[in-house]
Design brief:
It contains 12 helices and 15 strands. With about 375 residues, it is an alpha/beta fold.
């Protein structure tokens, strides 16, 4: 097994950066728990899917349902947030942190929850085409609690060394950044104590010890062969699978879009009384963070009056915060409901996402007010 080493006496082991099928990982939350339970010396781990807490929350629920199997593991709710400047890990989160802010505001939002902010793979360079981004030298000016100086991805050998040099004097951690099971636990963080609270204290006290090494070509080839055998995807497609699930029959896909200093939200399904709460909360959280929003409604096959309330709340909050919110490509069902609510020409709307992106980039007002008012 690749994870046969054990921490020093008095220390325990953590993996602070792992992905599931709720973002761009290939393992389900249940797969992760099963693998940790049998194949790893890790006692504490964090699920940190891209721009969503859903995978972490599912893992926590499943672990709580089976304490006989997973009671020796402690799970941290985390998120890998796509800031404009690079990826930031938030650990011990209570609420979703929206993407699209700069690194300083992202860290501020994490700290506002009493959570821990870590610079993920800050000097990564080889995989930018797939969305792998680091904050670089901002580790010296933004108040991160720690820097990830060991990342197990095979591309990060030299980037890890550079991060360790630049992070001298700061808390340093190691993480697998595992997107498939054989990468899990390859790099890790050893810390004095045994619990997640001990880990948090060790990060703040700068007593963590990063360890492990990058996986090599045989592991990568094995993963590729296995994925081809089962017909799975090999390269991550982050733009398509960042998602925050909701109640009711609605899916929300969040695409951070650095080109507009904001985010594109794609809604698929029914926007009704059941799902409106999470849509409203998502829009309010983004606009409170001064992130502009394009709301792609092409996939909404039913829009109820309660769903319109979520759109109105988002538009008003965008105005209040000086950012833009623009509806894009509303489906016929959306158009009918908006016209019936006499809001069809009041909420700013464009026929496609590209035009809506331009409106948000221009910070165009989120509502259109004529002299006769919205009911004209």
């Amino acid at each position: 097994m690749p994870h046969s080493s054990h921490p020093a006496p008095g220390f325990s082991r953590a993996d602070l950066h792992v992905h599931t099928t709720y973002s761009d990982g290939t393992a389900t939350p249940e797969d992760l728990l099963n693998y940790y339970a049998l194949h790893s010396a890790v006692q504490v781990f964090a699920v940190t899917d891209h721009d969503t807490l859903d995978g972490a929350l599912q893992a926590r629920r499943f672990a709580a349902e089976h304490p006989d199997l997973f009671g020796h593991l402690e799970m941290i709710v985390g998120e890998e947030v796509s800031s404009k400047d690079g990826h930031v890990l938030g650990l011990f989160l209570k609420e979703w942190v929206p993407p699209g802010m700069d690194a300083a505001r992202t860290v501020e939002a994490i700290h506002a929850q009493g959570a821990v902010a870590i610079a993920a793979h800050p000097y990564t360079n080889w995989m930018k085409f797939s969305g792998l981004l680091g904050v670089g030298d901002l580790i010296r000016t933004v108040p991160f609690d720690a820097v990830e100086t060991r990342n197990s991805n095979f591309t990060e050998v030299f980037a890890n060394r550079k991060a360790a040099r630049r992070a001298a004097g700061m808390a340093q951690v190691g993480s697998s950044d595992g997107h498939f099971l054989d990468a899990i636990g390859r790099c890790h963080t050893d810390f004095p104590g045994s619990t997640a609270d001990d880990l948090r204290k060790a990060i703040l006290d700068r007593t963590t010890v990063p360890g492990g090494r990058c996986y090599g070509l045989p592991t990568l080839v094995g993963f590729v062969v296995e994925r081809l055998r089962v017909g799975g995807k090999i390269l991550p497609n982050r733009d398509a699978i960042r998602m925050a699930s909701s109640e009711g029959d609605l899916r929300i896909v969040v695409h951070p879009d650095s080109g507009i200093d904001g985010a594109v939200l794609t809604l698929v399904g029914r926007l009704d009384a059941l799902s409106m709460k999470v849509v409203k909360e998502t829009l309010l959280r983004l606009t409170d963070a001064k992130v502009g929003v394009v709301l792609d409604l092409a996939g909404v096959d039913f829009l109820a009056s309660a769903g319109v309330t979520a759109l109105v709340a988002g538009a008003k909050n965008a105005l209040r915060n000086g950012v833009a919110l623009c509806l894009a490509a509303p489906s016929p069902a959306c158009q009918r409901t908006l016209v019936a609510a006499r809001l069809g020409t009041f909420l700013r709307t464009e026929p496609d996402v590209a035009r809506a992106r331009r409106r948000v980039a221009e910070r165009a007002p989120s509502v259109v007010v004529s002299a006769a008012g919205p009911g004209a």
